[in-house]
Amino acid sequence: MTSKYAVAAHNEFIAASNEALQTPNLQLALSRLGETLAAGNKSAFEKLPGSSLLRDKARAIKDETLAQLDVHLQILEAAVRAKGGHVHYAADAADANEIVERIAKERGIRRVVKSKSMVTEEIHLNHHLEQAGIEVTETDFGEFIIQVAGERPSHLVGPALHKTAEEMAVVLNERFDQQLSKEPHEMAQFARGYLRQKFAQAEMGVTGGNFLVAETGTVVLISNEGNARLTTSVPRVMVSVVGIEKVIPQLSDLPIFLKVLARAATGQKLSIYTSMITGPRREGEGDGPEEFHLVLLDNGRSRILGSPSRESLFCIRCGACLNICPVYRKIGGHAYGSNYSGPIGAVISPLYDGLKQTYHQPHASSLCGACQAACPVKIQIPELLIRNREAQHEEKVAPAGEELIYRLWSWVMRRPRLYRWAARVGAWTMGARARQGWVAKLPGPLAGWTAHRDFPVPDAKPFRDRWAALQREDIPVTHPVTKR
């Protein structure tokens, strides 16, 4: 039976994608991905000696750590507690939100500042705290913009990447009654002044975590703005919400990830700020929190750990696969309909949120493999996308029409004679509609393909026949259709 959720999700994705394709400012912003972040990624790794071996090493560390994740989490917990910190385990989003709210309310905290964190977007922490009467201010400039605009991030690294400078100025001017121009420096100066007041007033700082070092109990935060350091050093209470998969065993493992993460994310050799927080302020230290709390979030990760999609937990949230993906670079992040977008989002969102609610995501890919080539830990993303598609059919959440088409195709493919006959009929039928070897308009559900490009007519002489002729007469194999 067709899932109504699958149909609704599919229709919403198509509508959002069409809207994105027809939004000039968004297309302009997305077009810069290839010229900046994707190009920077490629260039940075080309200039790094032994980059492939370094990526293999990073992948191996993630693989080996996840194989003994329970052990490393115990080591991490002991190290955090030994440094005077507190450790909380959250089974799901609701549990994590309740823990953070309880920490705040027990200490009379009413104002919170946050550094950029995808995991808190995943659990919708801001909304939960605001519903509890706690003021939350995002301090990363991109996150600050989208919080003011009432939107969610469209990119793992650049949350406001979908907005032009003009649009950002409009958001700030309308919200704060300003007359700012589109000049980035002018907007940044305003935000800096506004946020400094928020830092001074805040009683709690909330962060995510790029890595957790088990042996030392350290939270590692990587950024290109100084806001993360202020978030972790000015308020008297610090809370880090981090997925359990972010653990690495030793401090000596960290440089490997620092080298590949910055290059994959922005093309830099190293991010401008690398903050390493190990427990609360110690005696004699001039700044830092009086209390430190680490919230370790599961939210489906343990389930993924024991599944064929375990490899998705290798992700270090660099955004490289988004920057290179031809689908993401046309429709942006919001069309995906969840907090994680792009190729890796199409893998993990269905695993976190369920295949019904995210039906469209595994299909939002050409399976070209560019994402896997760009990934700093070499996650086999195309294979994981295919697994999600397979799981949708196993769980019967695929639309009935699609299910029927694939079953029919599978039935034909298993019968060589029928397949050869169908191929000849298809070639003859399309040949009758073609001009110079190309079809400009296909019928029915296939019309989507030819809406933006022509379709090549299958050769009247199949490869099987041409190969047999080649074997008999040593005839070179050529294709008569001229490339377009």
- How many strands, what sense, and barrel or not for the largest sheet? 6 strands, parallel
Could you name the CATH topology of the domain at 36-302?
Answer: Rossmann fold
Our count of helices gives 23
- Unreliable runs, pLDDT <50, ≥5 residues? 1-7
> CATH superfamily name of the domain at 36-302?
NagB/RpiA/CoA transferase-like
User: Which structural class is indicated by helix and strand composition?
Assistant: alpha/beta
CATH class of the domain at 36-302: Alpha Beta
What strand line-up does the widest sheet have?
1-10-7-4-2-3
- The end-to-end distance, rounded to whole angstroms, is 42 Å
Q: pLDDT average, as an integer? A: 90
What is the CATH architecture descriptor of the domain at 36-302? 3-Layer(aba) Sandwich
What is the fold's blueprint, element by element?
Elements (H helix, E strand, L loop, with lengths): L3 H18 L2 H12 L1 H10 L4 H17 L1 H14 L3 E5 L2 H14 L4 E4 L3 H6 L1 H7 L3 E4 L2 H9 L15 H12 L7 H18 L2 E4 L3 E3 L4 E6 L3 H7 L3 E7 L3 E2 L5 H13 L6 E5 L13 E7 L3 H5 L14 H5 L3 H4 L10 H12 L16 H5 L6 H14 L5 H14 L2 H18 L4 E2 L7 H4 L4 E2 L6 H11 L11
Helix pairs in contact: 2-3, 3-13, 17-19
